[in-house]
């Protein structure tokens, strides 16, 4: 008796065959059964979680059973921090990503050959558009469009058309100088449960669990968008905003063991300027 579910690993058939290979009429292992045992052993090495198995041979009947229980948790924390500087009441835009060609039309010749296609390119990545307006009270009115997009894959195996995942916020808010405001967010949870079973046998109370395979997947997405506008009134404010960012990139490059930060060489050799004055390190008592 052997039960095999689609996508299950290792296969129950090689496990049962390996058990049969432990016995033979002449006392010697058959070469085919020896190979089956090796396949079963290699399959078991790739498993994770709790594993319980049973295999054997009774006269001419070969049976095998294996139970593999595993739970995996995958978490990711994606942080994008686009920043941009612009004048009062002037729109600014920054895009970190790529252009993806999308087929918008196709014309074939008289013999259904020599196709002529029209292509439209679509921006994919992290995009920020903002237009600030400073009011007399020192607050800032922001017209904001924030978008995060990515390619999800083709529509189907038979179609080359692409599906895009897109999260977009477009709004107008009033923020004080230097304050942090949450523009919006999304909490999404998607639960999927799959049951595969042998007809009739999988419905037997109690023993039916031996002929069923269950899987449950849960996808959670927590998306929050924050923004912090800062008014730059003079060169001193610009220097104050530039120095921390320059220091952060410079320290990251020096942490790789390079004798000189590539950022310093870029400013000196290509921009023909001196690097921004770095903030003094705090003195220790």
From TrEMBL:
User: InterPro entries, per this entry?
Assistant: Bact_Secretion_Sys_Channel, GspD/PilQ, T2SS/T3SS_dom
A GO BP entry? protein secretion
Ranges for domain Type II/III secretion system secretin-like: 69-233
Where in or outside the cell? Membrane
Task: State a GO cellular component annotated for this protein.
Answer: membrane
Task: Spell out the Pfam families in the cross-references.
Answer: Secretin
Give the keywords, sorted.
Answer: Membrane, Signal
Name the family the entry cites: Belongs to the bacterial secretin family.
> Which named protein is this?
Type II secretion system protein GspD
